[in-house]
Write a structure and sequence with these properties.
Elements: H1 8-19, H2 27-30, H3 33-36, H4 45-56, H5 70-82, E1 86-91, E2 96-102, H6 112-185, H7 203-210
Antiparallel strand pairs: 1-2
Keywords: Signalosome
Protein name: PCI domain-containing protein
Organism: Sphagnurus paluster
C-alpha cells in the first residue's frame, strides 16, 4: 500500500506507522521512492523528518518535540521498557537512565563506515584485554608452580636434616653402650654391695685366737 501512496496520503501513513504500538523498525518504509519524494515538498517535508527521527536519530534531535515535564519523560522510558525496546534502571537520585540493552535500529545513511570502525576498535580493545588477562593467568600459574616446587624442596631438605640428626643421636647411644660392655670384659668385676673383703690375720694371731 505504501508504494502507491503519495503526498498527503503518504504523510498520513507515516503518522500511522510512527504512532502504531509495537512498530519500531521503519527502514522499508523510509527507503520507498515516493516517501523520499516528501522531502521535496515544503508541506510534507516534516513528515519525512519525523520518519527519519524515529528511524535512526537521537533524543537531542527530538528537542523540537521535547517533553514538558520529567514525569512525562519517565513515563515514556517506562513504556519503552515494557515494550522491550530497551532495558535498564531509572536512577532517580542521579536523574539518569542506566541502559543495559537497546533494540537494534535502522542505520543512518553514511554511518556504516563509522559503525564498522567503532566495532573494529571494540574488537581490538577486547583482544588486547583478553591477551593481557591470559598473560596474567600464565604468570600466576608459573609463580604457583615455582612456589610449590620450592615448598617441596624445603620439605625434602627438612626431612634430610631430621634424618641426619636422628642418625647421629642413634650412633652416640650405641657407642656409649659398647663402652660399658667393654669395661666389664676388661676385668672390672661386678661387686656385691653386701659383700666385704676381710684381710686374713697374721699367722701368730690365728693360733692365739684358736687358743
Amino acid at each position: 500500500m505504501a508504494k502507491s501512496l503519495k503526498g498527503a496520503a503518504a504523510a498520513k501513513l507515516i503518522q500511522d506507522a510512527t504512532s502504531a504500538p509495537g512498530v519500531f523498525v521503519f527502514s522499508e518504509l523510509l527507503e520507498l521512492p515516493n516517501i523520499q519524494e516528501l522531502g521535496k515538498s515544503e508541506q510534507h517535508q516534516r513528515f519525512l523528518s519525523l520518519l527519519q527521527l524515529f528511524s535512526y536519530k537521537t533524543y537531542q534531535d527530538y528537542v523540537a518535540l521535547d517533553m514538558p515535564t520529567i514525569r512525562e519523560l519517565e513515563d515514556l522510558i517506562i513504556d519503552a521498557i515494557y515494550l522491550d525496546i530497551l532495558r535498564g534502571k531509572l536512577d532517580e537520585k542521579e536523574q539518569q537512565l542506566e541502559v543495559e540493552y537497546t533494540m537494534g535500529r535502522d542505520l543512518e545513511p553514511g554511518k556504516l563506515e563509522e559503525l564498522l570502525a567503532a566495532l573494529q576498535n571494540w574488537a581490538e580493545t577486547t583482544t588486547a584485554v583478553l591477551g593481557t588477562l591470559e598473560a596474567k593467568i600464565q604468570q600466576i600459574s608459573r609463580e604457583t608452580t615455582a612456589a610449590k616446587q620450592m615448598e617441596q624442596e624445603q620439605e625434602s631438605l627438612l626431612q634430610a636434616n631430621l634424618k641426619e640428626v636422628f642418625e647421629k643421636q642413634k650412633d652416640k647411644s650405641l657407642g656409649g653402650g659398647m663402652m660399658n660392655r667393654r669395661g666389664m670384659h676388661m676385668g672390672i668385676p661386678d661387686r656385691d654391695p653386701m659383700h666385704m673383703d676381710v684381710d686374713e690375720p697374721p699367722e701368730g694371731l690365728k693360733n692365739k685366737n684358736r687358743k
